[in-house]
Amino acid sequence: MRAIILAAGKGSRLEELTKNISKGMLKLFGKTLIERQIEIYQKCGIDDITIVTGYKSEMINFSGINYVKNQDYATTNMNESLFCASEKLSDSVIISYTDIVFEQKMIEQMLQFSGDIGVAVSLNWKKNYDGRTLHPLSEAENVLIENDKIIQIKKNISEASSDQKIGEFLGVMKLSNEGGKILLQKYLELKENHTETFHMAKSFKDAYITDMLQEIIDSGYDVSPVVVDGNWYEIDTPQDLEEVERSSMFN
């Protein structure tokens, strides 16, 4: 089992907090966001950890960790950063956004998933948006679940039928060896041929991972929700950081 932490972005919505450091190097109770993830992965027995860097990459330096840089981080998005580490997709892998903090049991639950493509989902997600005036509910990366499969993934899904559920994608996913092959094959195909808008992105190079997952769904592959519990929070704005520090949920 491997892990990939996506840490290439600037985190511009954090304003002055990321003027001189990468978003993942923000500290929460004395530990950086990346350090927290590394410790959880290692406690779960995952030692093959790769960090995809970009903005302020020279600031990210942890011993025993693999590094690959998205050289085009300023003009691309999360999806491109993931495939900068494509050689790590040849085995089972857990992938996480750098700007999230979570409890160890989330990763333990993800490790139990036995399918090819699984994404961490919360069904009790709306409570995390109470008071988040700088990151409102409408910006949540939602999933629409039907018959235990994700049929749609994008921001601000607000309508569901009686046999559907709306959850939130928590920025963590698990791929089997076969799941990695599926994503890589589709990525290479699109990289070569796609020239138009791409789902919610204005172009393929600007795509988020949610755009890529929707493409996989539309291509007929199963993307499964892994419903997890425990504390989880996204650090996207100064207000978010203040809220987590005030709650002491990760102290």
Please trace the helix and strand order, writing H or E for each element: EEEHEEHEEHEEEEHHEEH
Beta-strand percentage range: 25-35%
Number of helices: 6
Q: Indicate the low-confidence ranges by residue numbers.
A: none
What is the fold-level CATH name, i.e. the topology?
A: Spore Coat Polysaccharide Biosynthesis Protein SpsA, Chain A
* SS content category: alpha/beta
Q: In percent, how helical is the residue content?
A: 25-40%
**CATH class group:** Alpha Beta
Q: Alpha-carbon distance between the termini?
A: 28 Å
Task: Provide the descriptors you would attach to this structure in a database record.
single chain; about 250 residues; alpha/beta; Spore Coat Polysaccharide Biosynthesis Protein SpsA, Chain A; 9-stranded mixed β-sheet; two-stranded antiparallel ribbon; about 25% helix; globular
Summarize the structure in words.
The protein is built from 6 helices and 13 strands. It is α/β, with parallel strands linked by helices. It has one domain: Spore Coat Polysaccharide Biosynthesis Protein SpsA, Chain A, CATH 3.90.550. Strands 1, 4, 5, 6, 8, 9, 10, 11 and 12 form a 9-stranded mixed beta sheet that branches. It has a two-stranded antiparallel sheet with strand order 2-3. A two-stranded antiparallel ribbon has the order 7-13. A hairpin with a 2-residue loop joins strand 9 and strand 10. Helix 4 packs across helix 5. It starts with a strand and ends with a helix. The model has no long low-confidence stretch (mean pLDDT 95).
